[in-house]
Amino acid sequence: SVLMLAAILILYFQHGAQTGKYTFDLLELYKFSLPLNLQIWLFLAFGLAFAIKVPMFPFHTWLPDAHTEAPTVGSVLLAAVLLKMGTYGFLRFSIPLFPHASYQLIPLVSILALIGIVYGALVCLVQKDLKRLIAFSSVSHLGFVMLGLFALNLQGIEGGILQMLNHGFSTGALFLLVGMIYERRHTRLIEEFGGLWKQMPIFASFFMVVTLSSIGLPGLNGFVGEFLILVGAFKADKVYAVIAATGIILAAAYMLWMYQRVMFGELIKPENKVLKDLSGREILVLSAVTLFIFWIGIYPQTFLSRMEPTVKGYLTQVNAKYQTELKVLAGEGIHLAKAQPGNQELEKR
């Protein structure tokens, strides 16, 4: 945050020195162009703060510990809202303020996002604690969001925004479910469970829906966001899309493994044989979340139709500023290897 504060002050003084108007007005700063080298440094200063908040690899190490120590409400709030402040920061500040730097740094951000997708999924495969498993799955899921945002095309950004919403519903619901079972058993260790489907069929049913949502099963919300992100990534770089697709396969592996260990098998532990199923209040809360999981999965156009005009306008603004900065550099005799813009349709237009 200190580096981001320094970058904000540099923006303030640079704008004042060039225009005579010292301002923190974001709309004014959007119109303001900076030299590429300075853009890159300022992008990195903003980006470090946002990358820690997301969190992106390798700044993710705080998240599993935070989730493990937090109460259920804290984990739900962290997963559903607070982590999105990082991805929102990139979308709202870093990309439109520094479009030239954003295009130049697409490979760096995309590679870190891909590492996060695969690494987070692999670590999930060896977790013994339910909360830590879900926490590391967030690293993987938010890697998808970052990959979509930095595809810098319509499908990628729409998918990234939708996946922010999806992650809030799916992962928030998973933390709610883990909190409910923790209240009954006072443990989150996977090995302590088994056969809960027989004892808690309503709990197991909700858990199944949310698990499949997190995997990205067609017909549920996770599929729509991940599919759009993969389409956007494929348009930007086919290799990125192929690597990201392995993350979906790994997600199915660790989530289904977790569900099988917790829900199926024999009821061996005596403590599990006396567990009570969900109460009416718990069913009501989970039903509200499940409604959105099915709604987005079956009829995503409700959300995408409202999102599309804004995303198109956003890309037009970012791409126009980027092209203007390229022309300025060309006029000065500076020719850079042009980053591959994802917004090909707008370029043709």
Keywords:
349 residues, mainly alpha, 17 helices, 77% helix, 0% strand, disordered C terminus
What does this structure look like?
With 349 residues, the chain is mainly alpha-helical. The chain is built from 17 helices and no strands.
Write the layout of secondary structure elements.
Blueprint: H1 2-19, H2 26-30, H3 36-53, H4 62-69, H5 72-82, H6 84-97, H7 99-104, H8 106-124, H9 130-149, H10 154-185, H11 196-199, H12 201-215, H13 221-236, H14 238-263, H15 280-298, H16 301-331, H17 344-348
Number of helices, where a helix is a run of at least 4 consecutive DSSP H or I residues = 17
How much helix is in the residues?
over 70%
Total domains:
1
Query: How much is the radius of gyration in Å?
Result: 22 Å
Taking the alpha carbons of the first and last residues, their distance comes to 39 Å
The overall pLDDT, averaged over residues, is 88
Q: State the order of secondary-structure elements, H for helix, E for strand.
A: HHHHHHHHHHHHHHHHH
- Percent of residues in beta strands: under 5%
Which regions are unreliable across 5 or more consecutive residues at pLDDT < 50? Answer: 337-349
Total count of strands: 0
The best one-word shape is elongated
Largest sheet: none
The assigned structural class equals mainly alpha
